[in-house]
Amino acid sequence: MPGVPTSRGCDACRKRKIKCDASTAATTACSRCRQLNIPCVGFGQQRYIFKDEGRKLTRRHRELFPSTNVAGTLLKPHATSAADVGMVREPSNKLTRLAHAFASKASLSIDISHQLVGNFGGFILEVPRRIGTSEALDAAADTLVTAHTKYCIGQLSPNTETLVKHSRALNALQRCLNDPIKARSSETLCSVMLLSICEVGTCRRTSKNAVHNHYIGAAQILKSRGFSGPPDDFERTLLLTLRGPVVAFTDPKIRFTKDEWQSLVVPGLSTGGVDGDLMVCLSHIPDLMDRTRDVLQWPDELGFSLQETRSALQRLHDEYRPVLKRLRERWEGIDENLASRARTPESRRMTHCHYSRMLALGLSVGIIINYLRAYLEHGDGALQQDSTRMSEEILELSATIAVYRPLGSSVMILSLGAAWIGATDIMTKAIIETIAAEYFKDIYGPNYTFTIEDLDFWLKRFRISS
After folding, report:
1. Global pTM value
2. In this model, does residue 297 exceed pLDDT 90?
3. Long-range contacts, stretch 111-115, CB < 8 angstroms, 24+ apart
4. If we measure between CA atoms, which residue out of 175, 113, 114 comes closest to residue 144?
């Protein structure tokens, strides 16, 4: 915004839009002000008009401002969008600066190894436009911007700035949760998600329960306000991201009904998509886990029998097997898929990472289903053999996904835990523990000492008996 010099006329003449002789007169007032006997304010002073040259600069240097669509595909170089012009302008206040900073962190041009959107959900793209609507959301977004910046430059230990902002964000979230109206808002739910991301590999949580507790909090918010469906597209996108962690890490004391799990997981899924079909299978697991626990503990006091629970698990298994087959086929044809769908190196890496992670998750779901069936069908060696094969597949995938560390591979912690359950021999379990130790360092830092309790902690949700 360069300043363009204007005339040196006094304020009175400028206001009346008449010519002022201040630039030529050698006196301290123009002739008109002397004639009217009024103060000649601004006489002889040089003024500047500041012009917004954002659009002009964008046209001149458009190659520095490539536009991207929601899918991350670059638009044509000559296309100029409002977002491009906005990037040139200087932020005007604290909230605007925060929105700009968060938008830069939500960029799809960041490599998948450190990208927030590709690893934690598309809802992140919507956060900048909601800055200023919620105290908790603003504080959580500010914390994530600082934490992610430090993480990307290799500062794995939490610094004072990050910890102070994190503490403020937690206090702001608590104040919103104490308000019955704000506690039910999409922005409060989003702030919980942002703080959980801060705990994964950025704030270096001091308690192993931190991420777990955030997801429990999200589940409690959903449970308390009921399952009437997402009120807007923002929350619909948010729930698409939240459903997986809630299924995986919800405390058994927070029990959703079968219909509630369906309401959480199913809305927003693409019809016929293999990823969506896998999530539908995943949505059945919490209810079946609860039923398995109950039927083993109170076999004669429930409204359903052991045989009915076995039949329900068998139906889930039959529904799941074709989904796993499709995931495997997609992974086996990865080269062809990349050639036809991914046009840039960045999009190829994102697609490759996504396909490998979804297959690992699919294998984990299969191990958990077998794990539940094994409790009710004692002595079925076929189930254990199937789980062993899937554990070996997860081990192979862990080597492939390692190139997307640290954030792109974080989901492997859960998959490696499932593989550890499915493995039978001590040697395979030892290999899993060694690999898992490296992945845990991405979350807790390079000096973290891994123990077997770490895997047990992440899989506590799936334990049937103590």
Report:
1. 0.71
2. no
3. 111/346, 111/349, 112/346, 112/349, 112/350, 112/353, 112/404, 112/407, 112/408, 113/403, 113/404, 113/405, 113/406, 113/407, 113/408, 114/148, 114/151, 114/152, 114/406, 114/407, 114/408, 115/350, 115/407, 115/408
4. 114
Backbone angles phi, psi at 279, to 5 degrees: -65, -35
CA distance 182 to 189: 10
Annotate 175-203 with b (16+ C-beta within 10 A) or e (fewer).
ebbeeeebbbbbbbbbbbbbbbbbbbbbb
Whether the predicted pLDDT of 2 surpasses 60: no
Quick: pLDDT tens for 39-91. Answer: 887 777 766 555 555 555 555 555 444 444 433 344 444 343 333 333 434 44
Res 365 pLDDT > 50:
yes
The strand pair at 3-5 and 48-50 is best described as antiparallel
Closest CA to 105 of 136, 78, 131, 75: 131
Q: Is the peptide bond before 245 cis (omega within 30 degrees of 0)?
A: no
Instruction: For residues 282 and 343, give the distance between their C-alpha atoms in angstroms, rounded to a whole number.
Output: 32
- Amino acid identity for residue 189 in this structure: L
Mean pLDDT, residues 409-416: 86
User: DSSP label at 63?
Assistant: G
Instruction: Please give the average per-residue pLDDT across 401-425, as a whole number.
Output: 88
Spatial contact of 357 and 347, defined as CB atoms under 8 Å apart: no
The pLDDT tens digits of the residues spanning 397-409 come to 999 999 998 888 8
pLDDT at 449 over 60: yes
More confident residue, 267 or 124: 124
- Burial (CB count <10 Å: 0-12, 13-18, 19+), residue 405: middle
Helices (H), 1-52: 11-16, 31-36
- Mean pLDDT for the chain overall: 77
**Separation of alpha carbons 304 and 313, rounded Å:** 13
Which of 189, 73, 182 is closest to 121 using CA atoms?
189
Contacts of 451 (CB under 8 A, 6+ apart): none
Cβ atoms of residues 448 and 440 within 8 Å: yes
Q: What is the DSSP string of 228-242?
A: S--SSHHHHHHHHHH
Tokens of 417: 């835990």
Encoded tokens for 137: 């959301």
Both tokens assigned to 385:
């053999």
